[in-house]
Write a structure and sequence with these properties.
Cytochrome p450, 6% strand, three-stranded antiparallel sheet, Cyt_P450_sf, mainly alpha, 16 helices, metal-binding, single chain
Length: 422
């Protein structure tokens, strides 16, 4: 059996959360049960569709108005969805208090290095080194990250708890759990579990979705023929007087393959979440004693030439059968990148539907091309992904324009209809 015990993450304050809590602990079981019920069931996912569509429309409008700020718009889109579903707060801009608070925590975490790749994970004795010692910058980074991550867990949660107490709380994951715990007299015992379950949702969903969408845009810049095929499929299936919805997904197999290929081409967490063995094990003739540090190289799995021919190329067709339907004989990267076994991400369905809706909506309304420099020369970005806990493409530029003059009006009309019905 495998459990998670990552020293570097424990030192910065993630050890009580769903992703890192001991496997059989009551705390972890409760957190997973709550998240699964809220985000992992197909019936409950339908309750988020209006929110997903609303935020997608705002995202599209922002891309049309200031396309050069596409990275900021992706950030606002991803965090707005998470913060509203988890804490009940609507996010109008990146200046929102909770956005800045949580982004600082995520940036500090990414600065500590890849998952399980921190120096304290390889040399555990270093956790006893004082932060003031020369050469102990890793310890100072960890202490800085711990303070920011503590604030990211406590401040939004405390605001929701106060709102529940005053009767002003908007519907959200945290508010519902707080209300139930209060009614049953269990809040004092469950407060920390609710707090860390909410924090884990933000950490797991914001940067990873941001990574996927930035990777998608980069791929469309580098592989324009893929984007053209995606647009052609949308034009055949979706009427030009509306935007795509999640109900269109069964009829958009190529778009679905583009999403799969985006997951495969750059797994958001390339080394996965590291684990430790709780008992002796053997793999391919190698004996692995208890407490062995296990890092699952998702990047290598998704670049395995035996599974995916020409893995460095972005080729959604690898997932299509000759008939044009999904080829079920090709390994779906979602079975890898969202985790596996009993550590499978319980929020994966919400994340996947969010990504699909964003990808389909971008293809339906926008053109994505290479940017040009001040002299008018085409700028071709590189497909490089610097090492970090969450993998983001190296900074790049692109040109984003509306597909037609009436697209903006369509987006605004769709948004108005959503707002009037919610």
């Amino acid at each position: 059996m495998i459990t998670i015990k990552v020293i570097s993450f424990a030192r910065i304050g993630w050890d009580p959360t769903l992703s890192f809590a001991p496997y059989r602990s009551e705390s972890r079981l409760k957190q997973r049960r709550w998240v699964q019920a809220a985000f992992g069931e197909k019936d409950t996912l339908r309750t988020y569709e209006a929110l997903q569509q609303r935020e997608t429309c705002i995202f599209l409008a922002s891309l049309m108005q200031t396309p050069e700020d596409f990275k900021l718009h992706i950030t606002r889109f991803t965090v707005a969805l998470i913060i509203e579903t988890v804490y009940g707060h609507r996010v109008a801009s990146l200046d929102h208090e909770y956005v800045m608070l949580m982004d600082r925590g995520m940036e500090a975490m990414n600065a500590t290095g890849p998952a399980g790749g921190g120096i304290m994970d390889f040399f555990p004795l270093l956790k006893h080194v004082p932060a003031w010692m020369p050469g102990a910058s890793f310890k100072r980074k960890a202490l800085h990250a711990r303070k920011l991550i503590h604030d990211a867990h406590y401040i939004p949660f405390d605001m929701v708890r106060k709102a529940v107490a005053s009767g002003d709380a908007r519907p959200s994951f945290a508010a519902e759990l707080i209300e139930k715990a209060e009614k049953s007299g269990r809040l004092d015992g469950e407060e920390n579990d609710i707090r860390f379950a909410a924090g884990a949702l933000y950490a797991a969903g914001s940067d990873t979705t941001k990574s996927v969408l930035l990777t998608f845009l980069l791929a469309m810049v580098l592989y324009p023929e893929v984007f053209k095929k995606a647009q052609e499929e949308l034009d055949r299936v979706v009427e030009n007087n509306r935007l795509p919805t999640l109900e269109d997904r069964p009829n958009l197999p190529y778009i679905d393959c583009v999403v799969k290929e985006t997951y495969r081409w750059n797994p958001a967490i390339p080394l996965g979440i590291p684990h430790f063995l709780t008992e002796d094990d053997e793999y391919n003739g190698y004996h692995m004693p208890r407490d062995t540090h296990i890092v699952t190289n998702l990047w290598a799995m998704t670049r395995n030439e035996e599974m995916y021919r020409d893995p460095s190329l972005f080729r959604p067709e690898r997932f299509l059968a000759p008939s044009g339907s999904i080829d079920m004989g090709v390994e779906d990267p979602r079975s890898i990148v969202f985790g596996y076994g009993r550590r499978l991400c319980p929020g994966r369905l919400f994340a996947d539907t969010t990504v699909f809706l964003a990808v389909a909506s971008i293809a339906a309304t926008l053109n994505i091309d290479k940017a040009r420099d001040a002299q008018g020369n085409v700028v071709t970005p590189s497909a490089k992904f610097p090492s970090s806990f969450v993998s983001f493409p190296e900074a790049y530029q692109c040109a984003i324009t509306p597909r037609s003059p009436n697209v903006m009006a369509l987006v605004e009309e769709t948004l108005a209809n959503i707002l009037s019905s919610t």
